[in-house]
Design brief:
By secondary structure, this protein is α+β, with helices and mostly antiparallel strands. 41% of the residues lie in helices and 15% in strands. It folds into two domains: 71-292, set domain protein methyltransferase, domain 1 (Alpha-Beta Complex); 303-334 and 346-474, no CATH class. The radius of gyration is 25 Å and the shape is globular. Bound molecules: S-adenosylmethionine. This is Ribulose-1,5 bisphosphate carboxylase/oxygenase large subunit N-methyltransferase, chloroplastic.
């Protein structure tokens, strides 16, 4: 069954290394690691932390003392094998509208090089590589158990219909079905108690894999000579929210096996700004919804499937909105726009990518033909909007009315997220599994409603962009 799941490598662990067990234990209880009890202590300034490393450092022999002619190895190499903890520089973990997030605790001037804000050693991660040999830290699940095959979380049939997107609903339904089959196959009466306790009912299992899926980071790691594509659960780094214009990125520092979160080179950040990464590049909202349970009205990669023959002139459209570059790298040159003109956002970039266009010559030769094409495209958009059972205004009202009762649920979810990043991954997963009944009915209704609203807002923005285009176009 495992082979029919989305990420279906059977997972194995090279475990039973008592040292790893100790690290793991040390991390969850050590003074530097208790995010819940003393978050502020962990968030040290760059200066403070670099001056006083928080783990023992091996002192290599001084060059003149060495009898050997060989070059001494990189001292960082020897640090592996000592208890290391996560370090953070100039950031705070704060609760916001998208759950917990990471925020700058001071201004950051743009630098020519990326700057490190978090360092998380390999021992704190749970790593499942996509190829043999598998690495699996910490050793919490018996060899071969595929619990960390990542499957989507569940929604009821009615909720799936509320997406107002039959394709996405059917994909999610199919994934749920496979998850259920998977649970039935692996959680039968004969399995060891250790496994059984993890997910006594399928809802617990599905919830836990949903959490794992939405917090999993895919990266290429180099360990020694081995380069691996991995799926990782990385405490603290998994507190970063997504943005299509991120100010941070992940970097694997292979020499001492450390995941770094870095601020982009040349990036200015103000105290309090949210630090973000790009979870998925080039993906539409349905993919974000499937994997992370959220969507955006300004996803620059969203798509509208037009079926008519109408096309507008590409270069003219781009120049009206000061969009430059090739389609894969379109960007808005805001210095060319009037002060305060905030119309161009990710949705307009997406419109530039998705509207049918033609591109001979510098300007469209026949104004009336261009205006006719604009009208046809707008009409097709209007027809799409009319096919939805609700309007964007109605969705917005529904969302507003959901806001109040949702708060309690949200705090429950955040409580899980918080615990997750506070304790070891092992105890977190157990915790996630334990609190499921509390969260079962905290449906993703709001995210589902937002998803369909975002779809409509994107189509409406495309209609507006076409309107502005035909007003401003120069013939
Ligand atoms: C890796 S976690 C990020 C930390 C999370 N906010 C928390 O409270 O633990 C990913 C989850 O955060 C939320 N999230 C991240 N970026 C978001 C965004 N731009 N908009 C809405 N929700 C977002 C989604 O619920 C997603 O599944």
């Amino acid at each position: 069954m495992a082979s029919s799941l989305p990420l279906h490598q059977p997972t194995r662990c090279f475990f039973s290394n008592p040292k790893l067990k100790n690290f793991h234990h040390g991390w969850s209880q050590g003074p530097n690691c208790s995010f819940a009890s003393d978050a502020q202590n962990q968030i040290k300034s760059i200066k403070a932390t670099t001056d006083t490393p928080s783990y023992p450092i091996f002192q290599p022999p001084k060059a003149e003392e060495s009898l050997s002619e060989l070059d001494s190895a990189d001292p960082d190499f020897y640090k592996i094998g000592y208890v290391r903890s996560m370090r953070a520089y100039g950031i705070d973990f704060k609760e916001g509208p998208d759950g917990f997030g990471v925020h700058a605790s001071k201004d950051v001037e743009p630098l020519r090089r990326p700057r490190v804000v978090m360092e998380i050693p390999l021992e704190l991660m749970l790593t499942i590589s996509q190829k043999l040999p598998w690495m699996f830290f910490p050793d919490i699940i018996p060899v071969g158990h595929p619990i960390f095959d990542i499957i989507n979380s569940t929604n009821s049939e009615e909720e799936l219909l509320e997406l107002q997107d039959p394709n996405l609903a059917s994909t999610m339904r199919e994934q749920q079905h496979r998850a259920l089959e998977f649970w039935e196959k692996n959680w039968h009466s004969g399995v060891p108690l250790k496994i059984k306790r993890l997910a006594r009912d399928p809802e617990r299992f599905i919830w836990a894999v949903g959490i794992a899926q939405s917090r999993c980071i895919n990266m290429q790691l180099r360990i020694g000579a081995l380069v691996q594509d991995t799926n990782m659960l990385i405490p603290y780094a998994d507190m970063l929210n997504h943005s299509f214009k991120p100010n941070c990125f992940f970097h694997w520092r292979f020499k001492d096996r450390m995941l770094e979160v870095m601020i982009n080179a040349g990036q200015r950040i103000k105290k309090g700004d949210e630090m973000t990464v790009n979870y998925l590049s080039g993906q539409k909202n349905d993919m974000f919804m499937q994997r992370y349970g959220f969507s955006s009205s300004v996803n620059p990669w969203d798509v509208i499937h037009f079926s008519g023959n109408a096309c507008v002139h590409l270069d003219s459209f781009l120049s009206v909105f000061n969009i430059s570059g090739l389609p894969e790298e379109y960007y808005h040159n805001c210095r060319l726009s009037n002060d305060g003109d905030t119309f161009v956002d990710g949705a307009v970039i997406a419109a530039a990518r998705t509207i049918p266009t033609w591109s001979d010559g510098d300007v469209p030769p026949i104004p009336s033909m261009e205006r006719k094409a604009v009208r046809e495209l707008q009409e097709e958009c209007q027809q799409m909007l009319a096919r939805f059972p609700t309007t964007s205004e109605q969705d917005q009202k529904i969302l507003d009315s959901m806001l109040e009762p949702r708060r309690t649920h949200e705090s429950a979810i955040k409580c899980v997220a918080f615990t997750y990043s506070t304790f070891s991954i092992a105890s977190c997963l157990l915790h996630v599994l334990k609190v499921t009944p509390l969260l079962n009915d905290c449906s993703v209704n709001m995210d589902i409603c937002r998803y369909r609203l975002h779809r409509k807002l994107f189509i409406e923005k495309t209609i507006q962009a076409l309107e502005i285009y035909q007003e401003r176009i120069l013939f």
